[in-house]
Specification:
This protein has helices spanning 102-112, 195-198, 226-240, 263-274, 279-289, 295-304, 309-318, 322-334, 356-367; strands at residues 6-7, 40-43, 48-52, 58-62, 67-71, 76-80, 86-89, 94-97, 121-127, 132-138, 144-147, 152-155, 163-167, 172-176, 182-185, 207-208, 215-221, 248-254, 339-340, 342-345, 348-351, 390-391. The protein is of the alpha+beta class. A 5-stranded mixed beta sheet has the order 16-18-17-20-21. A 3-stranded antiparallel beta sheet has the order 1-14-13, with no helix packed on it.
Amino acid sequence: MLLIGLLLMPAISEGREHRCDNVLAEGSYLGDCESFYHCIVRKRRPNTGFCVTADRKEHTLALKPGEQMCCTKTEAIKMEVKPGGTLACNNTEAKVFYPDAPEIKAAVAECMKDKELADQCAPKFCCKAKNCAWRVVNEREGEQLGCTAVAAFTVKRLGGMWSGLVCNDETCLFAALDPATEEMACPRFYTVPPSVGQNEGIQKGPSKGSDAAPITIVEFSDFQCPYCVRAEETVKRLLETVEYRGKIKLVYRDYPLPSHDLAPKAAEAAHCAADQGKYWEMHDKLFEASPQLEVADLKGYAREIKLDVPRFEECLVSGATSTLVLDDVRMGEEICVSATPTFFINGQVLSGAQPLEAFKAVIDAELAPKSATSTKIGEAPAVDAGAGMIPSRR
């Protein structure tokens, strides 16, 4: 099995008893690993289709020429589709979309005004939890469209690799497969239990913003993780956005990955700085300097942010704040965090180094009256194909 690149790859746990058995299922995923996303990579079979329902069961159906299939939340559906049509499922039903709809034809015509793209403009369709979306993509660049519960995302293939893109309600996965022999499917509409993101203990940790803010973002992150460094820039932009001023409380929780040997001590260093009232100064410095996080580096950063260095060194060397980091990791495991970065926005999961638009989509839905939170068909913020997350190997 050829699996080279991943976008927003879900975390994989191994080597210890996992506390999230209610959302795990046994199955093949990226090299016989378990994942609560339970995505399946399998050998392509002639004249058959397959998809995965929310209960993480694989459905395989024989298909006649012209037939297509997809999975709703609970069942697999197949039907005959006229040439050019696309069958897509939302949570409850299957829908067929044809590219000759007036608004779609207009969008394709607009794309074709660019002579270089004239033969590459193609409408693609995907379904969200309650409705569906379309977007004209550039097939020359290998663009693909995927829908989560809140938005549609367009990604480009990595280099010359052929890639597969599948989504569930929370995130999209991107993998390099052999197009002649392999295919991949996810439980499109699987979501973690509501209690996961609403655990009161999740909000304990260093924070900025008012406790009365209508939006609380809890970030589980790792100072040595490159995707976390990228996400940190997005979080800063988010907090500086004028329309959200005073409306967001940010809570930071440590989730140093076992593969990042310098991350635990860096996390301890931030808490040692907190003892002197400068948690966020050290937090920002660590992300700015990452991955230069050796103990000698940490001591140098303490001098730069004007800490009492002997007091800081005593705290760091003694491991006085290590229990705070361990408590964060335990909380992360309890609520099924298993990759960095992972965000909970008012309890809703947003995984990976997502673009600003992805954060805003969730936040705007939370701030808007519930009767006005539906996403319009055709709205599709782009996502950087390099965005992602680092899997845990716990």
